[in-house]
Design brief:
CATH superfamily: STAS domain
Strand content: 25-35%
Strand order of the largest sheet: 1-2-3-4
Distance between the termini: 36 Å
Shape: globular
Radius of gyration: 13 Å
Length: about 110
């Protein structure tokens, strides 16, 4: 069984940075996600949105990255949303307890 290739596609609108995350988010691809997040994490002028529609798998390292983003954006008082969370990933977020801290981005749709 071949692992789903991890990919981050960046999109920028007038008021949002959207990162479309696809494939499998695990320890081996964390540097790739960090590289994509780095230029936009501290920008408070735009909402940061993670679109997880095409995410097939996430491990504890991936969840840790999302928690880090959540904490930093909260400290900066900068908007952060998560969109289109697949059912299996949502269940994991629920089990780990981070769902209650995530804002699903319906009110921030482009």
């Amino acid at each position: 069984m071949k692992a789903e290739q991890f990919q981050v596609v960046q999109e920028e609108t007038l008021d949002q940075f959207i990162l479309h995350v696809s494939g499998e988010l695990d320890l081996s691809v964390v540097p790739q996600l960090r590289t994509a997040l780095e230029p936009v994490m501290n920008r408070t002028d735009k909402a940061l949105i993670l679109n997880l529609k095409q995410l097939k798998y996430i491990d504890s390292t991936g969840i840790g990255i999302i928690v880090s983003v959540l904490k930093l954006r909260d400290e900066l008082k900068a908007p952060f949303f998560v969109r289109e969370i697949p059912a299996a990933v949502k269940r994991l977020f629920d089990l780990t307890g981070i769902s209650r801290y995530l804002t699903e981005g319906t009110e921030a749709q482009a």
